[in-house]
Amino acid sequence: MSIEPIVGRYLNLEVGGSSYRIYFEEAGSGVPLLCLHTAGADSRQYRHVMSDSAITSRYRVIAFDMPYHGRSNPPDGWWLQKYRLTTADYLAMVRAVWQALSLERPVVMGCSIGGAIVLAVAAEYQRELRGIVGLESSAFAPGRFNEFLHHPGIHGGELGATYTYALCAPQSPESSTRENWWIYSQAGPGVYAGDVYFYSLDWDGRKTIGQIDTRHCKVSLLTGEYDYSCTPEMTRQVAAAIAGSRLVIMPGMGHFPMIENYRDFRAFLLPELEYMLDDPRQ
Amino acid sequence: MFSSDWLTQFQTRLNDDAEMAVIGDWFTVAMSLSCGDERCVLRFERGRLVQTIAMPRLDTPCAFGFRASADIWRRFFADPPEPLYHDIFAMLMRVPGFVLEGDTLVAMQHARALHRAMRVMRTVSPS
């Protein structure tokens, strides 16, 4: 028998005139590391990071479920509006959570849609951050949205889970890729489609990421070799646009490194978190 | 590409697949595999591959199918597969020559079992 060090709580806050009940988990102490999950998933994807004492001994790791995801409710009146995540709403929510939790100069790490929005977070708030870790980060990623993601003739949970299962690398452990499948199968109707709307149709950071100054906000970019949603080439383009950024292409890894193959991923992640700890402004 | 020996091997392996036995209850559909002039139809009933039809005539109903060149199929069957060729969804997004033809709605209604069938298919190398 063992009890994991992860503790979950709820945060009530106002964002953009709406009330939200946000679920978050945390473990460890030290520099705040705010973790953002992928489209249609939730904070469970970071359970290995939050249970890794090499990280939690120096970082306070926090992961929250975006509204509509996991154990975070949609805002009141959700049944009267189609869920479509936008860059502005996503940025505002991330900002609101880190302010509500009083996280001082956090490192923000996100994957996929989270890997996209961390670029916007850095461009907008770089002087308030220690750095960002972008997992599967792209500045522009058209092509994933399709109407079958939310369709009355298709089981959305099974399609979303199967579609994203295919984003894992063939080398990743089966039990881990299936765990991610299970998380995806539990998304609410249209939530994955609403997130992919952001990722494929709303998000375009190509003009803003060049504003990121790595003397203020460090940037580490890690992308899996087998990621066909955010290909290594797409992240190379991000790295080329941000002077001083660090880029790692992870062999034998897919789109969900923190959950699909944590054993191999941590070897790439730990050096980047070490790099983030060295703060030239202190 | 899709020889009768290969089709038989795939049929045996799929019908022995423990996962398909769990998820295949509603997987009753006919689909095709095409490569140049070569085409075959696979007929599934409740998750079991019950018939393979090489060079089917027009009276062989078929809901959807995958079409690709020999080079693309070979990359799909490679072990390990190279990135972008490692999965049907990866190829549908990033390999323009890999085409889902026919009724794509029916294909996506069967996404889970179809994906499993194609994963099992990858483990049987064509001659």
Descriptive key words:
heterodimer, A: Rossmann fold, B: 127 residues, globular
Short précis:
The complex is a heterodimer of chains A (282) and B (127). Chain A is 35% helix and 19% strand. Chain A has 282 residues and is of the alpha/beta class.
Describe the structure.
The complex is a heterodimer of chains A (282) and B (127). Chain A has ten helices and eight strands. By secondary structure, chain A is of the alpha/beta class. Chain A has a single domain (7-277), classed as Alpha/Beta hydrolase fold, catalytic domain (Rossmann fold). Chain A has an eight-stranded mixed β-sheet with strand order 1-2-4-3-5-6-7-8, sandwiched between helices. The mean pLDDT of chain A is 96. With 127 residues, chain B is α+β, with helices and mostly antiparallel strands. The interface between A and B is medium-sized, with 24 and 18 residues.
Fold topology:
The complex is a heterodimer of chains A (282) and B (127).
Chain A (H helix, E strand, L loop, with lengths): L6 E9 L2 E10 L3 E6 L10 H4 L2 H4 L2 E6 L22 H14 L6 E5 L1 H13 L5 E5 L20 H10 L8 H12 L5 H12 L15 E7 L7 H10 L4 E5 L6 H4 L1 H16 L5
Parallel strand pairs in A: 3-4, 3-5, 5-6, 6-7, 7-8
Antiparallel strand pairs in A: 1-2, 2-4
Helix pairs in contact in A: 5-6
Chain B lengths: L3 H12 L2 H6 L5 E7 L2 E8 L2 E7 L9 E4 L2 H8 L10 H7 L4 E4 L1 H6 L1 H12 L5
Parallel strand pairs in B: 1-4
Antiparallel strand pairs in B: 1-2, 2-3, 4-5
